[in-house]
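Closing statement on the NAI sub-project.
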Amino acid sequence: MKRVLITGAAGTLGRVLRERLPSHLATHTPGQAWRFRFSDLVEMAPATAAERREGSEFLRCDLADAQAVHALLEDVHAVVHLGGRSTESGWNELIASNLVGVINLYEAARRRGCERVLLASSNHAIGLYRRSERIDHRAAARPDSRYGVCKAFGEDLAFLYAHKHRVRSLCMRIGSCVERPHNARMLASWLSYGDLLRLVAMGLMADYRYEIVYGVSANRRAWWDNRRAQELGYRPEDDAEVYAAELQHAVSDSAVAEPFQGGHFAAEEFDGDIDAVR
Ligand code: NAI
Ligand code: 15L
């Protein structure tokens, strides 16, 4: 039996995984028993009947509290780390939840002997690449925001703990994980909920030490060459192109957002020189 901890389980993607990951794994990993521990800073909706049957646990925990995170990692085989601020925020909030939080998570994983962490990184770690560029898993960070810097830091921390210690890490640079794309940018960056499940299932099963992959569907307009994820066994099934006729003209009026992969995260507070970003 392998216990999976999902942090940020009260959030949007946490709720998707709570509802759908147990049955997805039961179908796709026959012979392997999984148990789930769900955690968040805030109170979660009460467990469903299915979750009670599966024996899932629900624990409130502030990722900024090292002792509490150490307790949370008891008997955990793998962590899907979604917890933290998910949009641009002030430094104080980001330092507590996204920097101290991810440090506490990896330190507890190391001390508890947790085998692997699936880290929800973000396209905003590489948001200052241009949309005209096609990048792969070897692309160095080019954060577009304070939030993106914290994600890039998480990827470096994952490297340290994977190679210096024994915590394997899959850093998932997630694009836009929403039920359906809302604008032209998401024709490239969309990750469907079904493909999120496929990516996480791959991350729980594949053999790796440290990897960066893109959390993106099989979008024909994607800016990201996701062959490393494919090699590890990720098989996305969705393509945002089915929304193209409806969304291809849904562009912003920002001269900063449009050239960059990070879109409005790049544009917010931007007072640099667009041409000098390369
Ligand atoms: P969300 O904001 O809905 O969920 C994040 C959860 O983390 C919230 O429930 C919040 O209460 C919890 N949290 C915040 N600070 C915490 C702390 N100090 N201790 C414990 N829990 C804390 O975000 P969403 O959309 O579900 O995203 C999940 C993860 O995936 C986030 O790390 C986000 O940065 C990342 N991501 C999401 C993308 C998307 O398109 N939804 C794209 C790229 C990355
Ligand atoms: C993210 O990292 C955010 O968490 C999410 O809210 C979206 O803004 C997403 O990136 C995106 O770039 O669409």
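Residues 84 and 97 are 5 Å apart (CA to CA). With this model delivered, the sub-project is considered complete and its resources will be redirected to Aim 3.
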